Every structure is written in C-alpha cells, then in structure tokens.
Amino acid sequence: MEEKIIILDFGSQTTQLIGRRIRELNVYCEILPYNKFPQGDDSIKGVILSGSPFSVYDQAAFKADLSALRGKYPLLGICYGAQFIAYSNGGTVEPADSREYGRANLDRFDTGNPLLKGVRPHSQVWMSHGDTITSVPPQFETIASTKEVQVAAYQIKGEKVWGVQFHPEVSHSEDGTQILKNFVTGICGCRQTWSSASFVDTTVDELKAQIGNDRVILGLSGGVDSSVAAVLLNRAIGRNLTCIFVDHGLLPNDEFPNVLHDYECLGLNVIGVDASEKFFRDLEGVTDPEQKRKIIGRDFVEVFNAEARKITDARWLAQGTIYPDRIESLNITGKVIKSHHNVGGLPKDMNLKLCEPLKWLFKDEVRRVGRELGIPEHLIGRHPFPGPGLAVRILGDITREKVRILQDADDIFIRSLREWTVKDADGKETSLYNQVWQAGVVLLPVQSVGVMGDERTYERAVALRAVTSTDAMTADWARLPYDFLAKVSNDIINKVKGVNRVTYDISSKPPSTIEWE
Ligand code: XMP
Hints:
Elements: E1 4-9, H1 15-24, E2 28-33, E3 44-49, E4 75-78, H2 80-87, E5 92-105, E6 108-109, E7 124-135, E8 140-145, E9 153-156, E10 161-164, H3 176-187, H4 196-211, E11 215-220, H5 224-237, E12 241-247, H6 255-265, E13 270-274, H7 276-283, H8 289-310, E14 314-318, H9 327-330, E15 353-355, H10 363-372, H11 377-380, H12 400-419, E16 421-423, E17 429-431, H13 432-435, E18 438-452, E19 455-468, E20 476-477, H14 482-495, E21 499-504
Parallel strand pairs: 1-2, 1-3, 3-4, 4-10, 11-12, 11-14, 12-13, 14-15, 19-21
Antiparallel strand pairs: 5-7, 6-8, 8-9, 9-10, 16-17, 18-19, 19-20
Helix pairs in contact: 4-5, 4-10, 5-10, 7-8, 12-14
The protein binds xanthosine-5'-monophosphate (XMP).
C-alpha cells in the first residue's frame, strides 16, 4: 500500500498548494476536510494541518480533536494549524499589531532541529496572517523567530509535533520545500517513491480489488480525463469495461472517427454512438444560449442512458473526475467556486456505484499518468473542449451548414497553432498550440461586405479565440504573433466558403468568459 501524508484542510487558499509541493517530492498525499480523518488506515505516515480564513478564537472557527492523532503520527501545523495547536494547548493567539503579510526572514533558528535541517541563515519566509502566537505553553520550544514574529516556528518538547506560522508551501518561502521535505521524509519517514508509474500500479491493484468481476460503464468525451480513466480501468478489468462515446455532431472536424480509432488502438471496448440527427433536430431554431445548453445536456443523458441500459449487468459507473472538479464539494468554507459538469442523471433504478480513479490527481498529474499508460501525445496534450461542443461557438441557431463552416475554420486555426513553432521559456522548441490553454473559432451572427476578385461578397464573420490560463477560472487573451494571425486570417478567408472576415477576440476573463455562450 502506498504510504501517504494526510493534509487536514481548515479552508486556506493554499491547502492545495501544500498537496502539490508534497507530490512534487514524490510523496503521495490526500487533502481531507479537517474533521474527516480516516480511521484504520495503516498507510498514513504523518499529518499536516493547513491554514484557515478563521481566527482560532472565532465562534465559527474549524476545530479538530487532535487527541487521537497526537503521539500516533508526526504533526505539522501551518499558520492557522500552528496557532490552533498552540491555542488548544494553553498558548495565546492574538490579533497581530500590524497584520503580518509578505516577506520576512528567519533571523534566529535552531539549526539542529530536524524540521529546519538545511535551512539557510536569514532564509526568506512568507507570512500571511492577521493573528499571531504571543505566548506558548512551557512544553513548547520556539525553534525559529523573525524580526516581527517571536514564535515563527515551534516544537512540542519530546513530541513529534511542530508548528510554523509562515507558509512553507508558497514559492516565496525560499527553503519551504526543504522544510516540507524534512517533515515528510526525515520526520515521517516517507520514501519518495510516489510517481506516475507507482500510481498506475497501485491504482490498478486497487481497482481489481474494488471491482472484481463486475461490469463497468464509462462515458468517453475525447478529452484527457475520461481517456486516462478509461485506459487505467482497461488495464485493471479489460473487457468488463464498456465505454460509450456519443457524437452529438458538434465536435471538431473528423474528431469522432479519429478519436474512436485512437480508443480502439488503445484496446478499449468502446461503443461509438452517432446521435447527431437527434441533436440537430432538437436544436433546430433555438437561439437562446441557455436553452441550447439545456437541450444538449438532456439529449446527451438520454442517448447515454439508452446505451447504458443495454449493459444490463453493469454495477459501476466510472468517471474521469479529477481533484479540481471536486473542489466545490470539498470546499469546506462553503463558497461555491465553480460547478463542475460530468455525466449526470443516470437512472436510479440502474443502482450503479461510482468509481473515480483519478479523483486525487491534478491535471498535470493526469497527463503524466496518461503518458505512463502509453496514451498518444495528441490525446494527452489536447486543449479542454466544452461539453456542448461547437454549439456554444455558433451564436444564434444551429444548422449543419454553420457547423460545417465552423469546423473548417477551426481546423485551419488549430492546425496552424500546432504547426507554428516558437521557443519556450527554457529555449526549447514548442508549438503555439502547446503555449495556449485553449483555442477555437467562433461563428458570429453577422454578415459583412467584402470583395473577392471582381466580385462583391456578403458573407459571415468569425472570431478567433485563444487564451492563456492555468485553471480556466481566469484567462487572458493570448498574444499570438501578428504574422501568425495574418496567415490564419488569409487561409480561412481563402479556403472556407462562406467567410469573408476574421477578427481576433482580445477580451480577458473576467469580465468575459472563454466561450462566447
Ligand atoms: P468559460 O466559458 O466559462 O469556460 O470561461 C471555462 C472552461 O470550461 C469549458 N466549458 C465547459 N466544459 N461543459 C464542459 O465540459 C460545459 O458545459 C462547458 N462550458 C464551458 C470551457 O471550454 C473552458 O475550458
């Protein structure tokens, strides 16, 4: 069983980052709500308590009973986590005179303490708290101080319990990774063996044990997450996995046959369903964006369910849900950040259990696992694509003719992004496609006058959309080279019948969104 660190989440914005840093050390970790510590899990090697938006003395502050953990696991409190341990042991936590945000330096620290091994003199740390520990009980030993903060770090004497008031997980804490490494390897004894390969091995074993000989259904979208989940399950249970890939007719050019072919080459047991007739019929004349989305969502569920029902002995529904998809439901402060959209609404009478093998992974980890599984690069490196497909990129009603125009224009844009090479920050050659988060063409509901040869034209306009982003929550328009834009514009107008004008969308999100509808 994979050894792991548990991070108890008290609601800080940087909790995820703690997880990332530990995974980067090749140590597996899971982030759980502060009050959901798993019982009877022998693979746990240590526990980290995160920061929090609350003060320890707030009525509403999240409080955890650590009595069962203390003495059993090494503990590290970060910011609120440190204040909580100090406060609940009789220390004093008060509002800081001046709120302590930003850079500070560890002026004095105990170089012999195992948490601080290898930390350099005056190492810069990042503070971000409105409260501070003003006194610690006698059994606490202060092991680091900054100019402003006397108790920057402490250890409970003779116990494996530490607290740091700064944030080792943020990059501004120069030796933060070293401190986290000291904790997870030196103190907790984790061996740094977690990797994509070990994830694949342990997950395949777990899936075999969990599923046995049951049949599993999975909806494929052509995207990275569902593809990786499918190949992982295929390795575990082979033909007992049935994948359903629905074509709503609103995918990019040739996407359906190409991706279906890729899936077959990967050995997947996949049923491709061409349901485009139904979608076009139901979308006819509909112009309202929300209405379009609703129809597509409803039709998708209907088509998927009709196929799923044919697999009468299915016991599980597998999904490519990844960790960021679940943040909304895990977010213990109750703030809704983003609602996620996976296949929903399977009939209750099918009584399917849910299987989500990627639910602890971040996007880049999913990609690494996909590469480990031998999934081809053109599937792994793909841009995100909206579930409702090109429907949200055709403003106004949807017809086959408009989809054809958009597919052709999109094909030119995406192909050109793949072909245009540039140097990345490390001087390595890459494509513009790899440098943008997402790109596509939007068909506008306007016609304008143009001239081709001696002919007056009165045709459609399209907008190119390309954005940079790290998570799609915010995005900026990509600064694509003018020469590149000129070439794409030229190619589209010359080759795509029905388009005589190309524009470039220079809006960022917020206040705009990535998709136009
Ligand atoms: P917006 O347009 O809200 O999009 O800035 C953010 C990201 O989500 C994708 N998107 C969707 N993905 N189903 C999906 O699976 C949807 O209904 C959907 N709508 C938008 C969008 O392409 C971008 O990556």
